[in-house]
């Protein structure tokens, strides 16, 4: 029996009984950014039939960042989507948006520093007096001062240059900066750029430097969860199977993205997916399970987010931003 057939028969058996016999339930899925390897599960869900087998007709809506995705979900223009739970916690604390996190996808943050091997930076503690480039809009910028402080470095001791995302790699390869702030999901792309320039890229994940937090998560409109809970439950089950399929069959998962987004490179998608998987499957997953919001890690996420956003941590209880009702059993 194929992996997809096995997953479908064992994990969806009960929910399929409740699935509509004649017409699939329509669901609008909100992206938080452009299609790519880190977004492969939703494309797998559609292309490889996990959503269909769950009785769902899913449409993907494009997005421009987690804040945008949360706003669209809160407005009811989408039912469920993916966004950084840090952005959700801040939005709930400040505005009490009617959106809730229902499944943890990245149980480690994607934030990292890329440097040249044998360069002037060997660890995050070496950043004093160095020049770093970053994108103006990345959420990593909020966390950088926290990571620096953990390593005994003041933000004022680092020269931070903000540049367009596409120029970060060339700036690093040319030696114009000592390092660049980027996500772990882009590791393959930057290493390929390094090979072309004859340089070896080293990545310093901020999770390894002590920044422990949840990141990308499935979040949903509260009315959707209240009025169509069985649809939400079937969607999360199908999405979870799609993640597991992407782990087992990354080439097929990349092909699923390519089948729906024709202009994208299958090779680039597969590389990004392989870079993304360690953010989903790791020692945290081994301990807690896939999709789980473990209370202590969620509290630590809020501690970091509130510090990064200058919000009084006592202002909000992070448990109010999540529900564990829709997370499938291990």
From TrEMBL:
Domain of life: Bacteria
An example Gene Ontology biological process: thiamine biosynthetic process
Gene3D superfamilies: Periplasmic binding protein-like II
SUPFAM superfamilies recorded: Periplasmic binding protein-like II
Keywords attached to this entry: Signal
UniProt-listed InterPro entries: NMT1/THI5, SsuA/THI5
The SsuA/THI5-like domain, residue ranges: 40-253
Signal peptide: 1-23
Name of the molecule in the record: ABC transporter substrate-binding protein
Organism lineage string: Bacteria, Pseudomonadati, Pseudomonadota, Alphaproteobacteria, Hyphomicrobiales
